[in-house]
Amino acid sequence: MTDGGRRTRLTVVVLAACFTISIIAVSVSGQSETVSIAPADTAIAVRPPAPPTSVVAEDYKYDNAKHLVLSWVPSIDDQPGRTLVLGYRIFRSSGGGAFMPAGSALPGASSFRDERLSKDSSYVYYVAAVSATDTVASIKTQAISPKREYLHLDLVWLFVIAFCISSSVIYFIWKARAGKKLFVRKIAGLDAVDEAIGRATEMGRPILFIPGIQDMDDVQTIAGLTILGRVAKQIADYDTRIRMPVSRSLVMTAARETIKAAYQIAGRPDAYSDDMVNYVTDEQFGYVAAVDGIMVREKPATIFLLGAFFAESLILAETGNSIGAIQIAGTARPAQLPFFIAACDFTLIGEELFAASAYLSGEPKQLGSLKGQDVGKGLAMAAILLGVLSVTLGQAFDIGFFNWLADGLSTIFSAAVE
Question: What local confidence, expressed as pLDDT, does residue 32 receive?
């Protein structure tokens, strides 16, 4: 094209289509001329993409026979800087039937997981590379059916650890039922129970027992009521009064039965009254206000705070502290422990609440579970120490045995975490 003596080249790149280009030249005097470029002069044929290769269908391990995994090598036209492949489509034939779309994948993908399949049918797949104008299929896979695995062999070490701990629990339960005495270390809060009840008896003031604000489905509430059984028996022996406001109706029923049984064991069933336990409200701070009112009006000599507590823990403990009561608290909620430690005389920290429950009840199942968990903790501590030592010595002195030990421990516990 000529413009005032200059020559201009117009370059047009056409992809995936053929069409005609018309250029209209207009002179200064207004005369025009149209030049058309024929399709044969401009159309550039675009080749189809290469298909994906090495397409393989495999069973998805350790599932319920519902999945298959398809993998392939992407098309050679699916490379960085090449835009010919726009994606992949996966087609599936079930039981020898027609191929139907099973899904799609983005460019660069090399795998696809097919879901909601049946172990009673066989499946054949192929993958098609998709460009703007073509869809090119790969070769078909072999027919395959999903399988169900009953054992996850990658987690065999987790099974061994669980087996050791479970066996320990069963062994110690058996030992406790056989009448063998199981050692439970001394817990300071338990030693204070007798002293606290005796003090309330001497002062002629009641004992207040708060089992937390959770229902009977919380293990801390159950542990608190187990300790209540031991406390109530001693209260019956000393003929001391007990007040127990609760925030759950089921806890009220269970607590009444616990205290009633304790009075029967003490030989004083006539001294029991349902008024010892009363339901207040499920509302958290409504319950707290009612309990604080009881503390201020009746001024109990001893207060037990044993169970699951939340924001009300400090309010209750501070009110009890202000009236001069001996307070024995216990919870497994770490966020509330600092408040109890600061405001109460004795605190059962974390699992001490459950240990106290097992110790006071003497129940073989609780004692056996407690000792079995100790075995698990011992195994965990040994593994941590071995891991730290093996990694430190292996990297510091490049000793083969410690490197081997560190790799082994890493393999065992990595599989357990997964």
Answer: 66
